[in-house]
Design a protein that fits this description.
297 residues; alpha/beta; 2 domains; 4-stranded mixed β-sheet; 45% helix; 13% strand; binds zinc ion
Length: 297
Amino acid sequence: MMSDTIETITLQSPVSLVPEKPVEKRLTREKVNILWTGGFDSTFRMLQLSKMEVDVQPYYLCDKRKSEKNELKAISAITRDIIDHPETKCFIHPLAKINVSEIEPDLSITEAYKKLYANTLLGSQYDWLARFANSVPGLELSLEKSITSKAYICLWNYGKLLKIKNKETTYYVVDRENSSADLIKVFGNFRLPYPLYDITKLEMTEDYKELGFEHTMSTTWFCHTPIRNKPCGVCNPCKAVIGEGLTFRMPLSALKRHERLKKYGEHSLIGWHYKLHLKMGQLKAGAFSLLKFLRIQ
Ligand SMILES: [Zn+2]
């Protein structure tokens, strides 16, 4: 059962996560389940939801990626930002952390994912994300408009979407009458928040400002393989951020690495060696800090 795999963490804030509202008002509010990584897109949706009279349950899926500490730190800081904002109307439940290894297997979803992957190179996370959404139907997946996003291309190529409007929230769902069976298996349980699905990351920066959270943009975390605790500039999320014009979110070192990799050609032998060199550098840095630690002991 999925409930066995849910672990909640209580944020270390002395402030209540519940903005003061009468209980009966909270009971009638719409519940929104959302995947939150602390990244630019899902955080944007959290900020939008903060202005609505809704109950928000954020989920964080742990797959042992190097950036998890940074992502959870971002989530903690942004939760505080939302709570402290005078215009916040939503109720945020404590973050639910789920281990990917504990998500129920589902061969039919995995098979459908593999077929989509064969044609679109859709990221492997969509296998476990879809299996997780199977146990939390209606889970919000924060996809932005991006012609380089494999998920966006997949939805575009294999199906159609329907727009659903509730009292507070608006989102798209896969149109089951006009989409492929594989697309329905993988994306059929998700809600794709509106207008997030229709705007680019760059367009989102203006909305961050309008929502009164300009400063929160720099708190979000996106890089999967940070180097010295800063974005690397060469992993897929970093490439997406740079490619979509958000270079202000990158340290100079990351931009230089990105340029170098572009110059070498990512799939060339030199590009491959450069990426290996960066990985080895990270391993060396890890070994160095271990030695330093042992010396202190
Ligand atoms: Zn990166």
